[in-house]
Amino acid sequence: MMVSLLSFIVVIAICVIIHEGGHFAAAVWRGVQVHDFSFGMGPAIVSKRSKGGVLWAWRLFPIGGYVRLEGEEEENREGDDPDPSRSIYAKKPWERFVVVAGGAVMNIILAWLLTSFLLSAKGVNDLDSPVVGRLLEGKPAALMGALPGDRVLSINGNEITEWYGIRAVLREMDTDEVSVTVRRGGAEVVLTGKVPFDEQTGVRLWGVEPSRIEYPAHKALFVGMSYCWKMSVQILRGLWGIIAGTEKADIAGPIGIAGMAGDAAREGGWTFVTFLAVINLNLGLLNLLPLPALDGGRIVFILGEMISGRKFPETWERRIHFVGLIAFLALIALVTWKDILRLLAN
Question: Rg (Cα) of the chain, in Å, rounded?
C-alpha cells in the first residue's frame, strides 16, 4: 500500500510539474502574468511568494495542480498584484495558443525523451525478426538445444519471418512433437523435441524471449519519436473505439493509477520509467481533446477566434470551462468510486 501511494505521488508530481511548467514557461516567454504555481489541490502545506509575485505552493491533496494566470478568473485573490496589460486575454491569439498548448506539449516531449532513454539504455525487444534472445531455464527450447542468437526459419515446415510467427504457429499445432529449423552462424540446424500445451497460459510455450536492440543516443531520439507516434495512434484509436461503442471503456481514477504505479515500481526501475513515459503521453494527448476545461477545449476557442477574427466573450468562456470542470470532477469521482468497489471485491 505504501509503495503504491509513494509511487503515485512521484508519478503525479512529475506529470503535473512538467505539465504546469510548460504553461508557466510559455506564459513567462509571452509576458503573461503568473499569480500562482501549485502542485496539488486544497489548502497549501508549504507556500512562498517570489520577488516576481508568483505564489509557489505544495497543497494538501496531491492530485493535479495548476498555474493561475492573470485574466483567467473574474476576481483576483488576496496577495495578487494584477497587471491587466499582462492578462492572458490581452495577448494575441497565437500567443494564447502557445501558453495553453505548452503543458500538453511538455508531457509529450517528456514521454518522447523517456522512451528514447529506454531505447538507448535498456534496449527494446526485436519483434521484427525471430531471433532467440534469452532462454528460459527448463523450458522446451533450452532442452532442445536452442542457443541465443539462433534465427528461427521454420516450425514443423511453417516458415517464420517475424517473432510473433513463433507463437502463431505453436498456437495452431495439434501435436506436441516439434521440429524447429534455425540458422546458427552460416549453417541451418534442426532442433527436435516436445512443446506440450500449458494449461495455465492456454498456449504452447517454447520458452524463449526475443533478442534486444540497443540504439545509440542520437538514433534513439528518432526511433523514440516513431514509438511515441505509433503509441499515440493506438491511444486515439482506443478513444474513438470507446466513443463509437466498439470498445469497452476501462478508465482508471487516482486509486487505479496508484495501483498501477505501485505495480510498476515493484517490478523495477525500468518498468517504472516505462509507465511514466506511457502516462505522460496519455496525459498530453487527453489534455488536447476539444472538451471544456481541458487545454484542447481552450484551444478550440482560440482557433475559432483565429478563423473568424472575433473573440468569444471572456465571461462566457470562463463559465463554459467551469461547467466542464464540474463534469470532469464528477467523472473522476465516479471512476474513483468504481476503483474502490473493485478493490473491495478483490
Answer: 26
Same domain, 257 and 115: yes
**Are the C-beta atoms of residues 195 and 176 closer than 8 Å to each other?**
yes
323 and 258 in a common domain: yes
Residue closest to 234 by CA, chosen among 172, 281, 188, 304: 281
- pTM of the prediction? 0.78
Which residues have C-beta within 8 Å of that of residue 16, sequence separation ≥ 6? 39, 64, 65
Q: Where are the alpha helices (DSSP H) in the chain?
A: 2-29, 93-121, 140-144, 163-172, 217-244, 254-267, 269-287, 295-308, 314-345
Give yes or no: residues 57 and 175 share one domain. Answer: no
Task: Kindly state whether residues 230 and 341 are assigned to the same domain.
Answer: yes
Q: pLDDT of 151-183, one tens digit each? A: 999 999 899 988 888 888 888 888 889 999 999
Closest CA to 71 of 47, 56, 90, 44: 90
Instruction: Give the pLDDT confidence of 35-45 residue by residue, as tens digits.
Output: 999 998 889 99
| Dist CA 32 CA 71 (whole Å) | 9
Final residue of a domain: which of 186, 213, 240? 213
> How many degrees, rounded to 5, is the angle at CA 59 between CA 54 and CA 65?
70
Amino acid at 147: L
Question: What CATH number corresponds to the domain at position 157?
Answer: 2.30.42.10
- The string of pLDDT tens digits covering residues 2-22 is 777 788 788 888 999 999 999
Q: How many domains does the chain have?
A: 2
Contact 38, 65 (CB under 8 A): yes
